[in-house]
User: Fold Methionine ABC transporter ATP-binding protein from Lactiplantibacillus dongliensis.
Amino acid sequence: MIEFKDVTKTFATKQGAVHAVQDVNLSIEDGHIYGIVGYSGAGKSTLVRMLNGLETPTSGSVDIDGVEITVLTGTKLREQRHKIGMIFQHFNLLWSRTVLQNIMFPLEIAGQSKAAAQKKAEHLADLVGLAGREQAYPSELSGGQKQRVGIARALANDPQILLSDEATSALDPQTTDEVLDLLLDINKKLNLTIVLITHEMHVIRKIADHVAVMEDGKIVEQGPVLEVFKRPKQAVTKRFVNEEVTPSLHDTTAVVEQLVAKYPKGTIVQLTFHGDQAKLPIVSEMLKQYGNLDLNIIEGNIHQTQEGAIGSLYIQITGDPADIDGALAYLQKLRVETEVLNRE
Ligand SMILES: Nc1ncnc2c1ncn2[C@@H]1O[C@H](COP(=O)(O)OP(=O)(O)OP(=O)(O)O)[C@@H](O)[C@H]1O
Ligand SMILES: [Mg+2]
Assistant:
């Protein structure tokens, strides 16, 4: 388990003190994939760099399995660092070395024999889907393949924790998905804790189970991904979530306005479905019960998160007000969140 307790990091610069991380309290359970999201300069990298001792806190403590990182030095610190692998946006590969030699590098530094290092590296190349490419040089690989090398190298010393700092930010969406699938796979296979920094909410949605949102060095919101997606509280979280859950929110608002103008008697409702609800024919059931209602679907989308699906549907209902009330009550009975955006 990782525990940040009242952690603050202040950099002294010529321009004055920079409060990169402020009063952070955060616990990350073993085997979890914990997302850390925030805009540039929020303090994400500084926070995770304190995990492998690349930065030391100005105050507070960072513990891994009850061991305080800050007080470790020499051999103890090196041992601790072996428990943590790290991958980066720009891969940080050695360009004059082959795939296999890149993966072997941390093993050689750790003092393993060449034969043992090679055997391990071959196994890791296989694990990350690079079998057959062991002798290639980084310049001969696609971005996704380069990141696979980065991942294999990060796993070389059998870490318990993998830190990923924007590891998919330089990749196209398809390759991003493939690399995220790989991270999810090794998280399950190796019971690896993954701390994942990103500014892309879809990365969080796809593989993280928990998320912390950072702004100005502080964690302003944290919790299970689905909860934070469902009910974002802080403005910054809402911005991230809205970008993701309703990418065309502005279009939708315009559409709603147009519909309101066109059908002033209509009732416009936003429905939010969680988990298995998103798979059920709830709306058609509602129409069967209230057969006199007319329904227009304005917009809909479903997003998969690690803890289930979240669906969002904008509908316009016209008909007898009593039937509309009945239909809305019916939806509420099925625990579908309903929000009436406009009522005649
Ligand atoms: N070594 C340093 N010396 C001085 N200031 C620093 C140092 N490292 C980071 N900072 C400052 O601390 C703040 C947080 O930086 P950090 O790199 O942690 O942000 P970030 O959330 O990772 O941003 P990005 O998304 O751009 O990577 C920034 O204002 C940054 O300029
Ligand atoms: Mg950063």
